[in-house]
Protein 1
Amino acid sequence: MVLVSGKVLLQKAKKGGYAVGAFNTNNLEITKAIIAAAVESDAPVFLQLSSGALKYGGFELAGLAIAFARKVPVPVAVHLDHGLSFELARECISFGFSSVMIDGSSLPFAKNIAVTKKVVSVAHKRNVAVEAELGQLRGREDEVFAAKHSYTDPHAAAKFVKQTKVGSLAVAIGTSHGAYKFKGNPQLDLKRLSEIAAAVDVPLVLHGASSVHSSLVAMANKYGAKISNAKGVPEQQIRKAIKLGICKVNEDTDLRIAFAAAVRRFLKENPSAYDPREILLPATEAMKSVVMRRIKVLGSENKA
Ligand code: G3H
Ligand code: 13P
Ligand code: ZN
């Protein structure tokens, strides 16, 4: 199948009342796991690479993602996640990505509008979808860091979408990146989400949506990891957010935890193993299960 524009995936999801999963890849095994899960679930997916992923794997990693996307029988959009500059977004568009995020969320409002407009003008000529972000998520990843979060304001969102003509909007409603999302009870600001959805007509995106499955954390810890007080977004809250207008849901941390848990377990149980393909096979299977579980939660199973 040809690479599909992110716009097509999101418009179908918005109409159908489900969300498309967006999974981060950083290497061959993660890419294989996401693609295998999408094919087995007959689901559309975003295969996304962050600025950090491109720094780690180069555009060769993006080329691999595009090659997989072209080969499989389900619709795949290859997407730039948290593009931190106009130049990087333009490079990805030229390289063949079918969707890009320009993340100007740490910039002042007017500058965020300006850089988003610039990306939109280049992307739309090539039928490439553009996602932007308004409001800030808390949490630290390699390339994505915000010390505190400010939730998305519905009025500002309406103005932003009108002025930029962006295709989709990532909102800050209480999630954050990484494995430590909440101190107390996990709670998304669903009232705010419904106000944003009423104020704009574009598909909305939920970042920082990993659920941090306790069974995988426990397995990682059993085999030597030290992950304590980790807390993710409950799947029930993700389902509610989809009913209120979320059409794309980003998940990375859950795959990372599954990978770490499976590698630790395999090495502990197979001390004589040294072939990377053998070591990484259970990790690939574990990540595939995480993606398949997420696809079911999002309602995108059999929507290819
Ligand atoms: O949104 C953050 C993603 O998990 C990507 O993280 O910047 O470490 O690749 P990264
Ligand atoms: P998690 O850290 O919750 O997996 O979020 C990933 C993400 O938002 C990628 O853009
Ligand atoms: Zn994100």
Note: Residues 6-210+229-252+277-298 form a domain with the TIM Barrel fold (CATH 3.20.20.70).
Protein 2
Amino acid sequence: MKIVSIVGARPQFIKAATVSRIIRANPEINEILLHTGQHYDENMSDVFFRELNIPVPDYNLGVGSDTHAGQTGKMLKGIEDILLQEKPDCTLVYGDTNSTLAGALAAAKLHIPVAHVEAGLRSFNRIMPEEINRIVTDRISDLLFAPTQTAVKNLTGEGLASITHFTGDVMYDSVLYYRERIQDDPEKYKTDGIPDKYLLATIHRAENTDNHEALKNIFLAFSKLGQDIVLPIHPRTRKIILSSIDMPKNVHIIDPVGYLQMMKLTMDASKVLTDSGGLQKEAYFLGKQCITLRTETEWVETLHDHWNIITGSDPELIENAVGIAPPSTPPQPFFGSGKSAGIILEKLLSF
Ligand code: UD1
Ligand code: UDP
């Protein structure tokens, strides 16, 4: 079975690392890896391939940054050319980025089956570009791999139950797998020059970066918190804050880090503040309380017992949330058993 897997952005490299490792171990699968080039900085792309032993992509379209239509359009053409050449039995797309949308659309138009990993996520907020990407991708896919029961319910509600499979979350597989590597050599993955006790933050969502008021409020809240905050900064955010925000002294900006270093930063943080989808879950898997700097989350399972608190960019809500005691109940097994990639392989083979 020939599969073309399509990736392009940081969280997709992390998901594909786990799925590729499992599917390539099966002799029946011939995986071709296509990188759209949506993310291209060394620390947004190459570092993950190197550190997580992801095979070198067979193709890199090098599309780079552009408007949504500009970027997606270039990807569509490039992906179509490769699919025509490779003639795979199936394409595998991940998550909800422009690379996901372009991959699914190019394949569906060529009548090549599309399998979507992390299907069924919904924020019910169409202002988010990711929400449009998810809805379209799920609608034109042939196999939907849902990471949670909420995702299954969303897809069922959209009439897609017959092609939906609950697999669990490949990011949970990933945390279980790589956590052991960190525990074997914790010093190796420590970040130099950061405080002993800190809050870990990331910000990159358009709803925060492209809204000056929201961004200003988040940094106002950070300043009022007074505690040390470590912020590995997404290039999108760096470009905007350099010219528009007076950085509070307690915020320590660092370059984006590799996945294992990021996991270690999460393990050692007192709490996490983020608008990232992936990091909300990793905080939950690693037993860290999360404050979500958005007005909703797709990962509603994490909200129980104040494991995850939604604040948007409201400074008062952020401050109050950081003051809430960490939960005394453990995280629950909403995200499968850590064997999601194996289930995905099984479903692909029997498709
Ligand atoms: C994209 C995804 C988002 C995902 C995020 C993961 C879409 C619509 N959004 O958002 O769902 O959460 O990736 O990180 O697909 N840039 C660089 N170097 C890079 C990559 C980006 O400098 O290697 C800068 C460019 O100025 C670019 C901006 O970041 O314009 C945004 O990049 P883009 O890939 O368009 O969107 P993300 O915000 O990364
Ligand atoms: N991440 C990383 N280095 C960083 C910041 C994040 O490896 O400097 C990881 C993070 O641990 C998670 C993934 O990137 O696994 C999340 O990606 P991102 O926040 O960019 O996108 P989202 O999940 O919101 O789509």
Note: The pocket of uridine-diphosphate-N-acetylglucosamine (ligand 1) is lined by residues 9-11, 38-41, 44, 65, 96-98, 129-130, 204, 234-236, 239 (CB under 6 Å).
